[in-house]
Each structure stands twice: as C-alpha cells, then as structure tokens.
Write a structure and sequence with these properties.
The protein is of the alpha/beta class. The protein is built from 12 helices and 16 strands. The strands form 3 sheets. It has an 8-stranded mixed sheet, covered by helices on one side. Strands 3-2-1-8 form a 4-stranded parallel sheet. Strand 1, helix 2 and strand 2 form a beta-alpha-beta unit. The radius of gyration is 23 Å and the shape is elongated.
C-alpha cells in the first residue's frame, strides 16, 4: 500500500481534520492535547503564519501519536519547510503541478484543492486519486460532489470550506468523501486566549455529531423455537410493534427495539446494538480510547463497508456490537 493510500485510510478514520491557523508555536502542544482529548488527534497547520513550521515540529517531536500535516502550502519553499518540520501530509488550496510533483518526490501524501472537473482530471494526470474539494460550500457543496461521483468514480475528496457541525454529516455520508476539513473547533479567539477547554468541548461535540452514537435494539434469548414465536408475538402485542419471525427459527425482530434469539441455535447470545453513522470511524475512535474489538465478528456490505463488529468483552453478561444506521 502506498503512503498516499495509508494516509487516506488514516484521515478517513479521523473523519474530521481540524484546520488551524496558529500565530505562536507555543500554542502547538496545548492545542494538540485539547484536540486529542476531544477525540481528534489530528491537525492541518496552515502556512498562513510564520509559526507553522515550528508548530508542526513541536507536535511531531513531543506528541508522536498526533497526526499533523501542513496546509495552505503555496510555494516550494513552504513545502521544504513543511518537510523539514516533519509534516506527515501536505494540503494546498489549489492544484499546482510543481508542488504536487515535489511532494510526491519527497514521499509525502498531498491533497491539492480541486473544484471543477478540469482540475480533477489534471490531478488524475499527476497520479492523484484523492484531492481536497475547496472551497466546498461555495463550489457547490454536496450536490457538486454527488455530480462528480459519476464520471470520477475512482476519485475521493476531502471537502473543506464552510463546513461545521450543521452540515458535516451530509458530506461524510457521501461515498466519495474520506474526511472533512474544518476550523470551527479551533477558533482563532480561543487559541489567542488559550481557551483549550473550548477547543476540547467543540471537538467532542463535532465527534459526537459525526459518529451519531445511539442505542439500537436489545437481543434477548428464547428457550427454543416455540418460545421464540410466542415471546416475539407477545412483545409485539404489548408494545404495538410488528413481530417478524425468521423462517429458519433462529431469531425474530420486534419493531426495531428487540431481537429475540433462539437459545438452541449455535453462535447466538444476548447483546445490545450501538447504532452509528459509520462503524469503521466509530471503531477507530473507540480503539484510540483503549477499547478492543473481536475482529472475527466484522461483517461488511457488498461494497466492503463495515456494518457490524462486536466489542471484545461483556458488560453484565451482555455483548455489545456497533451497527451501521439504516438510511432514512
């Protein structure tokens, strides 16, 4: 796997890339700590100030688990400074072939800005398959990205510009979007004031919005096939919900609230489903917090997208799995 594809995968797991304009490199470490505490150990430090390179270097040397890249890279001199500082990826607002080729020669993943089919095709001729979509809202937003998906099925985008919690999820729901860039959780005033609690809180809120975690169904056990049928129908009648019994007699669903399982069937156990917008992103987020998963339980849809995975362990005798939310 190429370094570009590896970085694509890492950014996709993050889902959100905080875009930071930093005026003082002394702010770099408390910023990194606030973002990490909020659930996003990632930042794009823009070369809009002279402090960018020193900020990147400070994070790379002192917070090695933090993913940090250089943004607004417009010149070869800035690119060189970003490389020397230890930047792990490069982002630019436009498509400059000279910058792209130099980054590729340095072995760095690069995401140049593209807003039109012509620019996308120019990026393709440079061997790129993932680009920044900028300025996202001004350039047509999700409607434009949906239109680009048909002729450019192999291209993925990282939209940035005008994105915040209110419109984040429609972007992330698009299959050709790997992550969104945004500065709403790293407001300049908060950085100037050293208000790291505000950065942490807004980052946490953005992650919660992105993941959309909520409780789904509970799976309870029936003694046998006959009990499964009787219990499912009784629950359905009590709750005024439809009871749908599987023909194989292994289980039944009562509305979306309960799954009734046949204790006699192999491999079934009581559990609870934790719904999420994106099981892969949620899994990565939980893993960053120290939780483990039973990899053998991963289930994927026909497109290879993770839809189900169980946590490793039980809580009060109940197993828990992540489950992708059904489309509205």
């Amino acid at each position: 796997m190429t370094t570009q594809k590896i970085m694509d995968a890492k950014l996709r797991e993050m889902g959100i890339v905080p875009v930071v304009k930093i005026d003082d490199a002394a702010q770099a470490l408390p910023l990194a700590d606030a973002l990490t505490a909020g659930g996003l150990p990632c930042a794009e430090i823009t070369f809009r100030t002279d402090a960018a390179a020193d900020a990147i270097r400070a994070i790379r040397e002192n917070r090695p688990d933090m993913l940090v890249g250089a943004g607004t890279v417009l010149t070869l001199e800035q690119l060189e400074r970003a490389v020397e500082a230890g930047s792990q990826f490069i982002v630019s607002p436009g498509l400059n072939p000279e910058i792209v080729k130099a980054a590729q020669a340095a072995g760095l993943p690069i995401y140049p800005g593209c807003a039109t089919p012509t620019e996308v095709e120019a990026a393709m001729t440079l061997g790129l398959r993932t680009v920044k979509f900028f300025p996202a809202e001004a350039a047509g937003g999700t409607a434009m990205l949906s239109s680009l998906a048909a002729p450019y099925q192999q291209i993925r985008f990282m939209p940035t510009g005008g994105i915040d919690k209110s419109n984040l999820n429609p972007y992330l729901a698009l299959p050709n979007v790997i992550a969104c860039g945004g500065s709403f959780m790293v407001k300049g005033a908060w950085l100037q004031e050293g208000n790291w609690n505000a950065v942490k809180a807004e980052t946490e809120a953005a992650v919660k919005t992105m993941l959309g975690l909520e409780m789904g169904h509970f799976a309870i056990m029936a003694e046998d096939k006959d009990d499964l049928t009787a219990s499912s129908n009784a629950l359905g009648e009590m709750l005024c919900l439809p009871a749908t019994i599987n023909p194989d007699g292994r289980g039944a669903m009562v509305g979306g609230a309960f799954e009734v399982l046949n204790r006699q069937a192999e491999g079934l156990y009581p559990h609870a489903a934790l719904l999420t917008n994106d099981p892969a992103r949620a899994k990565a987020w939980f893993e960053r917090r120290g939780y483990a998963f039973r990899e053998e339980t991963c289930q994927y849809d026909e497109k290879g997208t993770l839809k189900v995975v169980y946590f490793d362990g039980e809580w009060c005798g109940i197993r828990i799995h992540l489950l992708k939310k059904a489309k509205a």
